[in-house]
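I have a small job for you when you get a moment. Would you make up a two-line entry for one protein for me to read? No commentary is needed, just the two lines. Write everything out right here, beneath this request.
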Amino acid sequence: MRCPRCRNVMVEQIFEDLQDDTGCLYFKGWRCVTCGEVLDPLILSNRAAHPQPLNGRARQKRAFMQIGS
């Protein structure tokens, strides 16, 4: 699996959440070995429900493109 943030390798890992009130203390997820991005099924479903903003509206993207042009 590739990291969506930095495109490097992600490894499967078991995480523990001691503050979870559902009774599930452990969950499986993926962690990027380079940037530390963590993904699990809940994070992925939340990201699918809230799509990324349009590229043309991001200030950093626009500023970067002007500098490079």
Remarks:
- The longest helix spans residues 59-68.
- The chain has two helices and three strands.
- Residues 54 and 61 are 10 Å apart (CA to CA).
